[in-house]
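in:
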């Protein structure tokens, strides 16, 4: 308990009251006449009534311009409220991982890299200035942010159809990433950086394969080199993990779908070069990595069917050394055997597509059904079964029309014309 006491306040209060009695009285607001006091609610009602009356009067005097003026005011208020949201969402947020000096240059670069304001020279200048400032400020050149800026520069050149410049930029990034993995990758097993940079090289190789293979560059050898490097990197890393195990903190490698996409890209490249005997095992391996009950499996089965039907193994060269006795020479399958295998894969594609129901069923299943049915018609045509081929072509044309697949409809009608000509020649 506190032992200290405080003086009583009774005497002081009474003395103040006595002094107040001898002071002159001052009239307060409470003693003013009642007529001078207007309730606040009444004031508000009068103000609202006058505002509504004024608005009604303006509307009757200007029936067209008054609503337009109100609409402009509301739109202006909405725009004023939207500006802070736009600024923080589209101006600040995309660059929040960059220092402001770098972000400032990148905003200018993005402004000049697309749309009506596209100016390759200005955009390229600001991209490079941003990268230079980032390097001076010590940003990691192999971070996702900096590599993403360089890829954005290449994407700008691709949109402007400057494919050689896009290839040059992407190839520089690819070489730098590979050199980093070889020189410093062993020091970054446990922080996931080695895995991340190595995965970038795979994606860059696949994109370079696409750019080299387009109609404007048409460098098939370079495209094949890049795609082969992507597939080899995927398989080597997967094999290393299976043999040596995954180290702590190393991170996940590419998913089966991503690895399958690389295999499929190389398979399509070999298809375009009519090297179907090389495309077949790639499509088959991609199929093993694809989810079994997916519509993309239907597409891969069709690709495998087409590749088998057109497969022509390379002739044996006399310059090659003789095969050791431990590896017996197995004869190449006959064309009829390959056609029979192709027919089986097309039938499997149809059966799989029929077993997939929404929401898992996508447009790939519908198009895959039309393609597989058309392929079965071609196989029947090769066997000389005109009736079966006609039935399949008619069914393929109906399916293609139903799913808005004009290319399939055109090809099916071409098959029907071939059958009609064959019947007339008999």
């Amino acid at each position: 308990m506190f032992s200290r006491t405080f003086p009583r306040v009774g005497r002081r209060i009474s003395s103040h009251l006595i002094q107040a009695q001898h002071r002159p009285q001052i009239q307060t607001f409470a003693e003013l006449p009642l007529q001078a006091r207007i309730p606040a609610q009444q004031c508000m009602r009068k103000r609202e009534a006058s505002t509504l009356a004024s608005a009604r009067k303006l509307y009757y005097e200007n029936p067209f311009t008054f609503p337009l003026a109100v609409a402009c005011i509301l739109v202006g208020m909405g725009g004023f409220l939207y500006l802070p949201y736009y600024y923080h969402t589209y101006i600040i947020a995309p660059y929040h991982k960059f220092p402001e000096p770098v972000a400032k240059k990148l905003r200018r670069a993005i402004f000049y890299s697309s749309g009506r304001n596209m100016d390759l020279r200005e955009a390229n200048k600001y991209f490079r200035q941003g990268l230079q400032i980032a390097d001076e400020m010590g940003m990691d050149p192999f971070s996702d942010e900096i590599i993403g800026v360089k890829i954005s520069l290449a994407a700008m050149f691709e949109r402007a159809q400057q494919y050689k410049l896009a290839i040059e930029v992407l190839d520089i990034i690819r070489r730098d990433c590979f050199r980093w993995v070889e020189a410093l990758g062993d020091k970054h097993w446990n922080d996931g950086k080695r895995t991340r940079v190595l995965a970038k090289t795979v994606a860059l190789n696949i994109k370079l394969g696409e750019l080299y293979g387009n109609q404007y560059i048409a460098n098939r050898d370079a495209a094949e080199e890049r795609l082969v490097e992507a597939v080899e990197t995927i398989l080597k890393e997967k094999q290393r993990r299976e043999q040596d195990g995954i180290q702590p903190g190393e991170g996940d490698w590419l998913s089966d779908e991503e690895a399958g996409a690389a295999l499929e890209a190389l398979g399509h490249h070999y298809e375009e070069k009519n090297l179907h005997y090389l495309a077949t095992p790639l499509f088959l391996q991609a199929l093993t990595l694809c989810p079994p009950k997916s519509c993309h499996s239907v597409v891969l089965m069709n690709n495998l069917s087409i590749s088998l039907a057109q497969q022509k193994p390379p002739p044996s060269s006399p310059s090659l050394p003789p095969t050791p006795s431990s590896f017996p020479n197995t004869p190449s399958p006959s064309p009829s055997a390959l056609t029979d295998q192709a027919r089986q894969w097309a039938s499997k594609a149809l059966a799989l597509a029929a077993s997939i129901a929404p929401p898992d069923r996508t447009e790939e299943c519908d198009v895959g059904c039309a393609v597989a049915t058309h392929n079965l018609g071609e196989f029947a045509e090769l066997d000389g079964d005109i009736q079966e081929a006609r039935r399949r072509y008619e069914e393929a044309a109906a399916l293609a029309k139903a799913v808005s697949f004009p290319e399939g409809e055109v090809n099916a009608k071409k098959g029907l014309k071939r059958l009609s000509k064959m019947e007339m020649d008999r």
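note: Residues 276-312+334-426 form a domain with the Serine Threonine Protein Phosphatase 5, Tetratricopeptide repeat fold (CATH 1.25.40.10).
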